[in-house]
Amino acid sequence: xxxxxxxxxxxxxxxxxxxxxxxxxxxxxxxxxxxxxxxxxxxxxxxxxxxxxxxxxxxxxxxxxxxxxxxxxxxxxxxxxxxxxxxxxxxxxxxxxxxxxxxxxxxxxxxxxxxxxxxxxxxxxxxxxxxxxxxxxxxxxxxxxxxxxxxxxxxxxxxxxxxxxxxxxxxxxxxxxxxxxxxxxxxxxxxxxxxxxxxxxxxxx
Length: 205
Ligand code: GLV
Ligand code: MN
Fold this sequence. Notes:
The chain is of the alpha+beta class. Helices cover 12% and strands 29% of the residues. The protein has helices spanning 163-168, 176-183, 187-197; strands at residues 57-62, 76-82, 87-92, 98-104, 106-112, 118-124, 128-131, 136-141, 147-153, 161-162.
């Protein structure tokens, strides 16, 4: 879904202006004279993420900010590790369709369509599941052991809107009354939930 490339490749130069110089096309290219074979390799997905957190899951990102070689090429990958019972709460990627491959474990994956229909299935080792662009989806490790998945996105920077964090731990905070009225909650419950979600807040790309 990203724009088509106009060069063979364009290894992102994340050093210009401290990595802040980007446009809708991506980042400026590293000069060809400085490109090496190492630029095409990313080792960031080889190690499990730390799943000792509120959700029992860890997303290790391989988007352009972490793997500069995907700049302008319209794809990227993540690794997701799950502790037993771990969950990736309902979230969406505004800029990409996602293909999830189960490396090991049994993961209940569900998508919620724009007419509130749910399609879900326990997906097992070697199987893949497709999450259409922008749809809410969740992953829940229903196996007895750890689970690991790799996800591929058709964007160098899919973005993530992680609903519990977006709604309860945004910056600045959404007014309590909005959440109280939207979810029919007691006012103090909003604070109880906020207190729980605050430590889970993390920048996800
Ligand atoms: C999985 O859903 C991911 O966002 O990596
Ligand atoms: Mn996802």
